Amino acid sequence: MAVIICADNDQATRNFYHITLSQSDYETTIAGTAAELDEALKQHWPNLVIVNTNFAGREINKLIGYLTNTQTKLRPIVIVVSDDQNQEKILNCISSGADDYLTKPFTAFDLITKISVALKKVQSQAVEEHSEPSILRQSRYKIIAHIGDGTYGSVYRAVDQETSSQDEVALKIFNSSAYEGLASSLNTFFLREAYAMSTMDHTNLVKCIDFGKADGTFFLVMEFAEGDTLHDMVCEKGPLEEPALAQIGFQLAGMLKYLGSHNVVHRDIKPGNIIISECGDPKVADFGLTKQKDDMSLTLRHSRFMGTPNFVAPEQIKGQRNVDVRCDVYSLGTTLYFSGTGKLPFASTSALKTLQTNLKEPLTPMDEINSNISAEFAQLISRMTEKEKEERIGPTELEEQFAVFCD
After folding, report:
1. Assuming Cys at both sites, which of 14, 141, 201, 326 could form a disulfide with 158, CB separation 3.0 to 4.6 Å?
2. Which of 195, 223, 251 is the endpoint of a domain?
3. How far apart are CA 250 and CA 244, in angstroms?
4. Number of domains in the chain
């Protein structure tokens, strides 16, 4: 049975939802407050959420981000409802991840039609995400659950059946269809990630255990890291406090120093690639864009940008060949900025506009957005996110500076 949550401040709208959906086969919860919505999400994770853009007590874009970027649950469809037909707000919601919208007033037919289309999409997602990749049907790795999807593959929680203790691992299956236009470089791309990860051994890096190719499909086996991503953590609980930010920054600055000593650049440091353990320690995963410092391959390939627009360094956007660990310093800075403010850096209405803003505009100082952040900490983040890499703080000094905030 499909689970639907409807959230609206207006009593008449909530009554309309109740009357329209009471005779349906859906399990429906109707929320009028943020507390009711939070409780509904805890009780039954939804297949569909219908939420007012002005829903009291929850910032709509943050709520959409939490719902649509979860890596531990099946992503629900999100339909936003506008009271005033504010096109800019609707577009911002769609940009944040909402799937569809309704504008008031709407009829019961409008509502049921939107729900029917949305649930068909949910059903197709479930079939796709729970279909076991063919290469694993006779493999040593048994899939337990689907964790999430990235641009270049899907990640599963699995058991290594050849170990006596049946160790749990994270299994990444590379999706060849995602490499449209890049087929000739797929082998190089995969081997880059596998080799880079297999040679790295640092407490703040997810360890590579095994890699290979079966039935023409690449796979990568990694240490399974327990915890939530930094992205999900911030979306669910709000911005982190300065001591927690400093501790994460200190540990990851040490990790970047380690990568730099091996001439390795990650190139995709972002909140979704950082897993936070129960005790607050970060681990960086997903080396899909990793390169050796002397690898002259371009960041831009066949006009396809490789990176994450809100967090990527300007030199990567420009496609410069000689990127080094300083681009990871920049991405760590934007990651900590998001984690301390709850605001996506350089957010805009499209990926292209985000890249353009990233190239040209400085970030608003963190302490101007979150008054609990000190001016000194905000200044350190500003040094990490200088547009010119020559002006950016290096990982050794960065580790030392974060240590001061950890004392």
Report:
1. 141
2. 223
3. 10
4. 3
* Cβ atoms within 10 Å of 214's Cβ, excluding its own: 14
Q: Are 102 and 81 in contact (CB under 8 A)?
A: yes
Query: How many other C-beta atoms lie within 10 A of the C-beta of residue 327?
Result: 24
Instruction: Please indicate, yes or no, whether residues 388 and 260 belong to a single structural domain of this protein.
Output: yes
What domain range is 63 assigned to? 3-129
Q: Are residues 107 and 211 in the same domain?
A: no
With H, G, I as helix, E, B as strand and everything else as coil, classify residue 150.
strand
This model's pTM is above 0.90: no
Identify residue 374 by its one-letter amino acid code.
S
Strand partners, 158: 143, 169
End-to-end CA distance of the chain: 52
Which of the 8 DSSP states describes residue 213?
E
- The CA-atom distances, in angstroms, between 205 and each of 186, 208, 221, 325 are 24, 9, 14, 15
Longest dimension (CA), the chain: 65
Which residues carry out catalysis? 268
Q: Does pLDDT of 304 surpass 80?
A: no
Q: Which range (93-97, 236-240, 354-358) has the least confidence?
A: 93-97
Residues pairing with 168 in the sheet: 159
